[in-house]
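Students often ask what a holo structure prediction actually looks like on paper. The answer is less mysterious than it sounds. You provide the chain, you provide the ligand, and the output is a string of discrete structure tokens encoding the 3D arrangement of the protein together with 2-phosphoglycolic acid.
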Amino acid sequence: MRRKLAAGNWKMNGTATSLAELEKLSSLYPNPDIDILICPPATLLHRAAQAVQANSVIVGGQDCHALVAGAHTGDLSAEMLKDAGAEYVILGHSERRQDHGESDELVRAKAIAAKDAGLIAIVCVGESIEQREAAETLDVIGEQISGSIPDQPIGENLVVAYEPIWAIGTGKIPTLDQICEVHDFMRTKLADRFGADSASSIRLLYGGSVKPQNASEIFSVSNVDGALVGGASLKAEDFSGIIQALENA
Ligand code: PGA
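The corresponding structure tokens follow.
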């Protein structure tokens, strides 16, 4: 059985006052049936880890460097995130692929670093609107999965998030059939590579404009094990609606 995961990505949002949202979320779910993750900006990570109760909300990073340490001004290693209290790290988000030119190869190196540091990696994949309109979606996702996920099966230490770029922050979501097609494809692709057993332990998240209003229908799709949520994870009340939908799915 795959444990469901509601993951919030605060992106470049949040200062010390935002920790109150995290405390609220943590007190609403002292012992949840699903994994609830918030990835705040790195400046808040340590305080966020301290602000949540044990066994409730867990925290993670939004990126890490592929190396353990060294002369890389401004970067953070997976080990540093772990030291600050992170249990997860988001890797290869489309905003990092776009803003920082991150390649599949780099994301793969980061995923290996995350595993070595004892973090669970959430590797993001997703097509642009042009690629979807050109009917290239599955080719793009297949290539990103092959390129961004390391060779050694990471099983429970790996989560894959399908995030169509055109759905992020736009209020648009794919049809349920489109989500289903991609998620089934990802499961098969992972099974071909790692074997059915390993592949069946990897959680697959959908991300892109998930809101309390559309969460239930998204979670009804097979092979959707949770969500990666941006905007609607910033307020405990909104995120709570998504958590409840996932608990009830
Ligand atoms: P959104 O972002 O929920 O604001 O669309 C999702 C994401 O980028 O992970």
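The chain has one domain: 5-248.
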